Structures
1.
Amino acid sequence: MSTITTSSVPESLQSFLSSPKKLFIDGDWVAARSGKCFDVFDPSTDQVIGQAAEGDAADVELAVAAARKAFDSGPWSSMTASQRSRLIWKVGDLIEQNADELAQLETLDNGKPLAVAKAADVALAADMFRYMAGWATKIEGSTIPVNVPYVPGGEFHAFTLKEPVGVVGQIIPWNFPLLMAAWKLGPALATGCTIVLKPAEQTPLSAVRLGELIQEAGVPDGVVNIITGFGETAGAAIAAHDQIDKVAFTGSTEVGKLIVKAAAGNLKKVTLELGGKSPNVVYDDADLDTAIAGAADAIFFNQGQVCSAGSRLFVQQGIYDEVVAGVSEIANNLKVGSGFDSETQMGPLVSREQLERVRGYLKAGLADGAEATAGGAALDQPGYFVQPTVLKNASKSMSIVREEIFGPVVAAMPFANDAELVSQANDSSYGLAAGIWTRDISKAHRLAKSVKAGTVWINCYSIFDAALPFGGYKQSGWGREMGHAALENYLQTKSVCISL
Ligand code: NAP
Ligand code: MG
């Protein structure tokens, strides 16, 4: 265990961080069975700011037993939907009441600018619980007229029931730690499931605090269990567990495939929200000032650590130089620094590993012949800082165009016409999101249909709302988060047929 350096920790968080964070199992805060903890880092200083319990398969076992009990015989399943709804709403209220602290925790642990943590992560997380609280009382089946050909004259009353899938394992990433927990927990709670949640090892803190708020709201013991720890141990145990009925995962496509394999043992249901390499398209008839600012924001928001980041920038050929110059100018002027500095527009990457990954892509892109018109390197200072980067002369054979970088690096490419654009935009194994900037409304509608992506933003980017479904085509995932579409991931349909 390293020494905790509290120099970067705001005073308000010091007491929370002064002791190792525990696992939340069956309503109790407990150390890992192994007694092990792992260090938690501040990405802006590379210093240890706390410890979290290192849960593994033995702890997952206890958490699953608690979730099983709460689902099979516990108070959650016997509560009315309206009682559940009020508790879920209360979690949203408590997030809002503790918004400052949660935003600070997120900035400290993940690195993102504090204003972003508060306005986006925390506010959207509160919204998600409230939106899903509303759905808890509106889950209903239907009555279905049946005409059974081999029972002439038979009379039946048939209907469907929507029932919770059961115990769900939820494995989430580090880019929006609190919000990803909210996206996962909200629909699971609304449908009446119980949960074992594993936050990412890089960012366990806000999930632990959320667990405290869930307890404060009065959600019964065992309904939500939180296991901090590593993917290869705790995460893998969740994915493979035969008493877990469904697993919901957000993270890399590579690990998503491992989850699918592990889930095959008991054929648990699987939903996946995976990577992306999303095209962001600027036409020469767009409002260029807005489009240029939007293209910069699409890639530099959250340090580019966004699964739907606009990382392939396609610009119509006549305005290519102008748009690349405009985005580069914004990149060169972005204030990069600690998320706690109110001037900061872009914080550090989440971890040393992520910094090395992004650096590797920058080197590969430049070696392949791309040219940096902004950035192109890491910052020579403590913390995991990288320059906002624009690479032109990019082409589709390069790894910077084909692979998800998950950093503030955009590859710019020209296109001539719609047909060429659609073929280039869809030339990816991913299909998470796309942006289109044009004043031509018919073209916008046509392209929205032609692009293979789960979300298409027109004259905007990175617009998220609890009511809007989000998820991937192709290898970007299975199922949808948010909106009523997310409920389907946690429900199963039972047909009941009565002979009259
Ligand atoms: P990752 O390994 O896919 O991590 C996501 C989650 O899966 C974490 O909670 C992780 O736990 C867990 N995990 C890892 N291995 C597992 C396994 N074998 N079984 C079950 N769970 C497992 O992602 P990463 O390594 O943090 O980042 C690598 C790349 O993934 C990024 O550069 C980016 O391209 C992509 N990514 C995408 C998203 C997204 O929103 N779609 C988010 C994050 C990363 P630990 O963190 O504790 O190991
Ligand atoms: Mg951290």
2.
Amino acid sequence: MINTGITAVEGYVPEKVVTNDDLSRIVDTSDEWITSRTGIKRRHLSTGENTSQFCINIGKKLLEKTGTAAEDIDIIIVATITPDYATPSVSCQVQTALGCVNAFAFDISAACSGFVYSLGIADKFIKSGQYKKALVFGAETLSKITDWTDRNTCVLFGDGGGGALLEPVEKGGIIAEDLHARGDDVSLTGRHHVVENMVCKNVEKGHPYLIMDGRAIFNFATRVVPQSVNDILEKTGLTLEDIKYIVPHQANSRIIDIVARRLKTDIDKFYINVEEYGNTSAASIPIALSEMSAKGLLEKGDRIIITGFGAGLTWGSMLIEW
Ligand code: B82
């Protein structure tokens, strides 16, 4: 059987940093309130770059650092809920900007689980033996769909992206996955587009922003994430002792604290950077992986579990041997 490996990871966040104190000047909040409830101190916000630009920057770095020719890329997948356009997809914009003329390209929508879902999809294409190289991104400009007058949500989100090059490897790579959805739970929703046309004047009003029932999704995350991590371990016959890091979606440090407690493992096993970027949805896991790689935390043979959870509701985990 062909194994799919992550052979390079890169991230990109916009330069502009907005602190909690900056936010306390536009909504009724404080650094103390935000930090104690979420662990977030800062977030990077786009001053004009859109989601495709993040991916293009990341893709260029990935090709450059691995010495990969653009024409050799077979697949481009972008996980995002904040594409530049309904169509063309961000992945098609990336394809043309990078010159990946032989790649097919599509976006997927699975919110904060999007990167994990996308790795799962790319893995199957590579495992089929028909395709050799995939670029997989998670990237968001959540600031576009944030209500900047709502103090409960505008303090949470940030912009940025990350991406990976996937290729067949001899040993290790993606070892196991666990993917789920619960479409009946709408406690976290994004922009709602209602139908309005020449034959339909809609009475229902859409809304342009992210809306969440914090307590409900908090309970969801702290229930399903430990379960999903345990399912992955059970499938592989491994224990947490065999895992160097758990890399969770960076939604809120309190979620991670509770997940660690429920898994009866030390918080140090979790890679956490929510302090710096806030919640960047599909981008949070690849940004974390890119940081970890740059810091030399991911060595050959290390096993990690990535775990995403978010709107849909969707969730999923994956065990990767580096
Ligand atoms: S919260 O409910 O307001 N809360 C926890 C009880 C603060 C102390 C809250 C806040 Br603030 C921020 C995030 C969450 C949360 O649960 N987030 C998510 C849960 C599941 C899936 C995705 C997310 C996400 O924010 O991306 C709760």
3.
Amino acid sequence: MIPISEALKIIERETRLLAAEKIDLENAVGRVLDQEIVADMDLPPFDRSQMDGFAVKSSETKNAPVRLKIIGESVAGKGFGGEVNAGESVRIMTGAPVPSGADAVQKVEETREETGYVEILEAAKLGQNINLLASEVTKGARIFERGEIVTAQMIAAIASFGYARIEVFKRPKVAILSTGSEIVDVAETPRQDQIRNSNSLMLKAFADRICDAHVLPLVADNVESLRKVIENAVRDYDVLITTGGVSVGDYDFTKPVLRELGAEIFFEKISLKPGKPTVFARLNDCLIFGLPGNPVSSAVTFYLFARTAIWRMQSAKKPELKRGFAVAATKLKAAKERDSVLPASVATNEKGELEIESLRFNGSSNFIAFARANALVFVPQGKSIEKGAVAEILFL
Ligand code: AMP
Ligand code: MG
């Protein structure tokens, strides 16, 4: 049995990096940058008005009210070409360039207009209502780094600097294969002794956000069919994720078939509950994750291992789940001989604390409870986290 940290090291060591490709920015969310994003211009690119109003020399408004001549206007997209001199002002709109000579904008509500003149009712302070040239970003500044995962919130910043197309790492092609003679398709009505396939669509839902995932047809606990499917899958995909058939039962054929095919098996027993029999192997150039069949076990091991590998293949700088801390609402207990990673629901309580409610009240097959999970709680082997104590969590 190896610890989780060791398993992650092995995954890091065995994961090869994929090449890059250029894509449209509109498809970039969830992709990993293979380039820096650099500001190609100052922002704002000119002294910009934050208000609709009048551009003035602030010193002239000190003894407001004061009457100034309107000598022109500055509109967003078309500034006023000339200069503001003593006794003058320029009508200005939000987003328009502040004309030279002016050093403040008084908003329209603080002014009264007469033909050709404006009365500034309140003194304008130096710099008031103006975003100065380059006050947000200077040309040449590095905005994002290679290895960052593009989020929806980043798009405006990237778009501002003209990256209509960007270099990102290719996504791995990932196959999902559920195995088990008792498993039937979701659309079918299970006969006696059968259950529906919940793993394939669950894993596809997890994986779709981070790679190109395809669900393969179900395969029964049968050495021949399993061998055929795996042989084909490793030819066509970068990663194969299987579920079921990795324990020590008489019909658990995943490992025997991998061995027979000559796969290199890197680990097959992790000090982890749930997920102890998780297998990590490689055949040809395809990484194989053999996850336990139990839906909650497959979910936890997908998040801890397969997901990390999929991000690593894309050179993501931070492939792990985001960490945080929260208070245990109930006592959380680990297994005696294994570290436990418990699916949990984390929410803010009345005291304003982030609080963990463990969801594994009914054993690891409880995927109904798992449906409410938004985090995993790590509890070291043999230890417990008392009610009210702070625990480390990983956000799903
Ligand atoms: P196994 O890992 O094959 O021993 O399966 C462990 C448990 O998970 C058994 O109760 C299986 O019936 C169940 N199971 C296996 N594969 C799936 C699947 N694709 N969908 C739902 N449950 C599954
Ligand atoms: Mg089975």
4.
Amino acid sequence: MTDKIPLLIDTDPGVDDALALLLAFDDDAHDVVGLTIAAGNVGLHHTVANALKLCEVAGRPDVPVFAGSPSPLLHAAPDAAYVHGNDGFGDIGYAPASRGVEAEHAALAILRLSHVHAGRLVLVALGPLTNVALALKLDPTLPSRVARFVAMSGAVTGHGNITPSAEFNAYFDPEAAKIVFDAFPLFDLADWEATVAHGLPHDAVLGWMQAGGGIGRFYEAISRKTREWSADRRGDDWHSADALAMAWVLEPGGALEIAERPIDVVLEQGPARGATIVDWNRQLGRSDNVRILMRYDTGRFHARVRNVLAR
Ligand code: RIB
Ligand code: CA
């Protein structure tokens, strides 16, 4: 048995997911025991292919990749191809990975690996929560075997990105988010607003990639489209939601401020669907079920990103 912390990542790659995965692969204290793939940024066919390709580029063909649900639990939702490219990796036309996806469904892999690593597993969700919700419906005892659950999701004061009030991962499958948020007694949340508060300077990122080798060059290519899209709309910083969440996963001590509160999700169709409602004044009498990342050490965050893009 390794002393490394077992890390299981549910993800919808996606350019920022790719950076988060590179950070995870680069950390000596953690062992990535699998990637379970969600639909979200783009369709499942692409997110699976992107995960397999990224493992190949990172020299990690040993990491098993499990395909999950091709759609949200109940209602269809728009993807984020306008941000990440139609294929989710900047439409660079990369040669597909030589390896294929595992036969086991993502939800079943989450449950199986939670038993293999019971009590030590760190489960990270970087995309819509459909697969994690399915796993919970199959086996509601899942949280008892998970040492820490971290989700990149939501907008804790209602400043969304996909709608005025909702963040993409929560909006893509709000029913799944509610199932998951209600199932874990206390989980960690890195939301969109934390992402915006912890941007990566475009110029610095470009310099880090240009100083890099194969990984830096690959990441410069797949991220070019989304970085150009972002520079036109979001100013001097580039925002990598999943990378910030992963930095907190890998280095919890980098968190400078955390807020514990009750959180819920709006399901009703309409302008607030997918909004993540935090009871900041605890008016509803519910117990705190989320630890919200409010401030992270940007020096530590940037150092991790710089190191991995310089590879
Ligand atoms: O809102 C940002 C989140 O939605 C990130 O996880 C991004 O990859 C998309 O999935
Ligand atoms: Ca994602």
